Amino acid sequence: MRKIISYIGFANKSNNILVGQTHLKHFKGKLYLILVCSSASENLINLAKNLAIKHSCEYIVTAPKLEMLTNIKDVKIIGLTDENLSKAIINNKESINIG
User: Fold this and answer.
1) Which band of pLDDT confidence, cut at 50, 70 and 90, is reported for residue 95?
2) Which of 35, 54, 78, 93 has the fewest Cβ atoms surrounding its Cβ within 10 A?
3) What pTM did the predictor assign?
4) Strand 17-19 to strand 77-80: parallel, antiparallel, or no bridges (unpaired)?
5) What are the structural domains, with CATH classification, of the chain?
6) Helix (H) or strand (E) run with residue 98 in it
7) Backbone angles phi, psi at 98, to 5 degrees
């Protein structure tokens, strides 16, 4: 899980992360990965699925709270715009993936 936290930290520092459903809904660029917290509402998880289809990217429902992974308070959904960091997270998703 430490690797995932590091990758998300790198994405955050390089401004390659979108936080919250409003930012994700209105984003016009390319998303490579969507992470949604397992404690999110069913509607938010469905939104993540629909956004993943719209942007042709993968989404991951995280078992640990997304707050813990991102160090951002009250976050339930994020999107990553960096392809390499997204691939790195996807390759290590077994430590955070529940669905």
Assistant:
1) confident
2) 54
3) 0.92
4) antiparallel
5) 2-95 (3.30.1330.30)
6) none
7) -120, -10
